[in-house]
Amino acid sequence: MRAQFVLSEIGVGLRRNLTMTFAVIVSVALSLALFGGSLLMSDQVNTMKGYWYDKVNVSVFLCNKSDAESDPNCAKGAVTEDQKKEIQTDLKKMAVVDTVTYESQDEAYKHYKQQFGDSPLASSLTPDQMQESYRIKLKDPEKYQVIATAFDGRDGVQSVQDQKGILDNLFGLLNGMNWAARMVMALMLVVALMLIVNTVRVSAFSRRRETGIMRLVGASGFYIQAPFIAEAAVAGLIGGGVACGFLVVARYFIIDHGLALSQKLNLINFIGWDAVLTKLPLILATSLLMPALAAFFALRKYLKV
Q1: Does residue 244 carry a pLDDT above 90?
Q2: Domains of the chain (ranges, CATH numbers)
Q3: How far apart are CA 242 and CA 237, in angstroms?
Q4: How far apart are CA 171 and CA 27, in angstroms?
Q5: Which of 18, 56, 138, 282 is most buried (CB neighbours < 10 A)?
Q6: Distances in Å between the alpha carbon of 6 and those of 12, 107, 207, 233, 245?
């Protein structure tokens, strides 16, 4: 009987404050969709880091004849055969190095033509203007500085470059976007909590006569508060369900179909459905507990029961 009464009061409260209930649902849905999106964005960045950092190389570029005339690092002339052998031997001895691959001037010229063949500069370049280099794959991409310290400024070495630096800029941008989404999510969450508290107070005020009678007949504080807390929880849970729907639809249309980024951007390793599905229970639990707790603390002060 008591459960039936609580359920009937929930229905009455939701219908009586339909506009505010709708506002709570929308704000909770948007805030939790942003929350889930920020979690998925973090997973995507971590997935891309694991994928690309495993493929980045450190390049040790060697001096050629052109560099000897224009680059201070190559003031002692083009790299000699003995210097190349010594550099390669020292690289292979280093504990942080996984593999070492030599790229000749002809190979560098061929790769340049493949990547930048349409560039006006490509027609004026010759193989002897390209740089020989050693491409080093590290066991730990974070250990780039070890290679730079050992070979930067060495005779025959023009420069040491790390592809990880380029990726760090990209990941920095993605992380910045992720934090911006989290700030918007936090703002929406505050708005949702304010709406929940206000909705609960309006609902309690409109039923103050009933709650007064219940206090007089000895009803417990929890029994009086239960319908109001449940109303907030139900509205929040509906919003959480909508947020989960947003995430599933976004993953389906943006990555798999519609925009189909997984087919158009083959170089990006996108997160799978498992990452999305593992976030849904967290979103639903948050959508249920957050409004319920907000309503509970609001009622403790407002109803004074």
Answers
A1: yes
A2: 3-52+169-303 (no CATH), 57-140 (3.30.70.3040)
A3: 9
A4: 30
A5: 138
A6: 10, 77, 14, 13, 28
